[in-house]
Write a structure and sequence with these properties.
The protein has 183 residues and is α/β, with parallel strands linked by helices. The protein has one domain: Rossmann fold (3-Layer(aba) Sandwich). It is built from five helices and seven strands, in the order βαβαββαββααβ. A seven-stranded mixed sheet has the order 1-7-6-2-5-4-3, with helices on one face. α1 crosses α2.
């Protein structure tokens, strides 16, 4: 799968992550009637949080949470349907054949509705992705314990006093990279 980097952004907060979600939708995902967004990142990278923040922007009233156990959550908004998949628990790609995901990805959105398919842990689905839907890939890299621009190893090697450490704000740095994909 060929990937073309569209942009790279860094977030240190929920509000910055929400702005990244809004920007990615408004600049790229909104343009198409039906879109497939693949979310790639380690556990805790904020994949589901990204979907929740995007849903807030799209005025989705439902509580957006991880579909880890039921594999798919569907959310309805004004003129938009979000299909939020989490394939983490699947063991092999043939598991997808027993579910209706492939048929759902192959369906065409109704006239006045936009379909946004968002897949967490999409690696097993690569062979089943449709050719007729634009595919975007969002890679999220979590860099824990980013401390005022210092990585943890830099902090440990620094000469800061214990009293100075108490005033340092710890946050998690996330790097978001959005790619357009070609099958």
């Amino acid at each position: 799968m060929k990937q073309n980097l569209l942009w790279e952004e860094t977030s240190y907060s929920v509000s910055e992550t929400k702005q990244i979600a809004i920007d990615s939708y408004e600049q790229y995902l909104k343009k198409e009637k039906e879109v497939l967004l693949l979310l790639i990142g380690q556990l805790g990278a904020a994949k589901t949080s990204f979907v929740r923040l995007l849903g807030e922007h799209l005025d989705i009233k439902d509580n957006i949470n991880s579909p880890s156990f039921n594999l798919l959550n569907n959310y309805q908004g004004d003129g938009i349907s979000i299909f939020h998949y989490d394939l983490y628990r699947l063991q092999k790609s043939s598991d997808l054949e027993n579910l209706d995901f492939i048929e759902r990805w192959s369906s065409i959105a109704p006239q006045n509705t936009k379909y946004l398919h968002i897949i967490e842990w999409p690696e097993l689905a690569y062979d089943f992705l449709p050719n007729h839907i634009p595919i975007f890939i969002l890679k999220i890299e979590l860099i824990p314990e980013a401390i005022l621009g210092l990585e943890k190893s830099q902090l440990e090697a620094s000469q800061l006093e214990t009293s100075q450490l108490e005033t340092i704000q710890v946050s998690e740095k996330r790097i978001f990279k959005l790619y357009a994909s070609q099958m």
